[in-house]
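Consortium newsletter contribution from the modelling node. Members have asked for a concrete example of what our holo predictions look like. Here is one, prepared for the adenosine-5'-diphosphate complex that several groups have been discussing at recent meetings.
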Amino acid sequence: MSFLQLTGLTKFYGDTCAVADMNLSVEKGEFVSLLGPSGCGKTTTLQMVAGFEPVTRGRIELDGRDITHAKANTRGLGIVFQTYALFPHMTVSANVSFGLEMRKMPRAERAERVRDALALVHLEAHAAKYPRELSGGQRQRVALARALVIEPPVLLLDEPLSNLDAQLREEMQFELRRIQRQVGTTTVMVTHDQGEAMSISDRVVVMEQGRATQVDRPQRLYEHPRTRFISTFVGKANLLEGRVNGEGAVDVGPLRVVVDDTGFRPGAAVLLSVRPEKLQFVVAGLGRIDGEVAERFFLGSQWLYRVDTAVGALAVLCPNDGRAALEAGQRTGIDWPVHCSRLLPVDSASPAAETAP
Ligand SMILES: Nc1ncnc2c1ncn2[C@@H]1O[C@H](COP(=O)(O)OP(=O)(O)O)[C@@H](O)[C@H]1O
Ligand SMILES: [Mg+2]
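And here is the predicted structure:
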């Protein structure tokens, strides 16, 4: 039995279906992210779990208890939103202490719990400050301490880092994961940032138009995306239209690509998906296909190339390992390992879901 269980969870706002038949099992102590473009239903899902939005259909169970229609304040969940909504007129420690006072916890015990929570987020030295005296990252830590101090069974985070600038955001991702591991709180986080979802989650739920379309561990999701949408929303992909032939291979124009397991019947139209970093440059004539470098972009630690080939333009991502980069106009061969070819159904993605997030 999972710790948090969503079964057929559905939400309509009038005629708009925001969440459709969502099923999800979260294990105790797990960190799960809901990932998807803006408007796909992530926040609505979280709000239903929190008890702030009524459920249209379906069930929410927490530790074996049906909480579908329970009042928010009886669920006792820890919640952190994008705008951290600290009380501006209260000190850091008063902010963190607030939830415990509401629960009528005795003063001495409260002080100890607040001290522990502030230590957890490395803010002991700032206990007497006011929110306005803190940086964005520090304020977000206060919000986290405030949510965790009540020792909630589940922590709900809605885009908790999206107000932070890029570098701080990356630091806080690891920090968030460290804190979550240390306290072991079951966590569900909403994000539209695939890198963020993958770097800190045990499992990622990809949502498209109110539906969960893939639930997997980050590496599995990245290496085995189930749909065209996921293959390009999570990482980048070269997508080539092809047709399965009878011999465990796919024909892409003049190119025949042997794949591990087609999983499609012979004759089926498919998309062959290969990630840019799986492609390698080899001597022309010695790879799967030859091409001509059309453009190159310097990304610091990597070079990104666009190479024109007989099957179309291919993106190739190479580490900047100190060797000379290829020049525009240069001929090159391109190869990739057999096990890095993925086949996807052509028609799996709903067209609306393919617009950029
Ligand atoms: N209070 C509301 N009233 C009406 N429609 C809403 C409301 N909240 C969200 N929606 C709609 O529900 C869909 C999902 O929204 P939301 O859950 O906020 O998506 P996300 O968090 O993934 O960006 C969107 O189409 C949005 O416009
Ligand atoms: Mg949202």
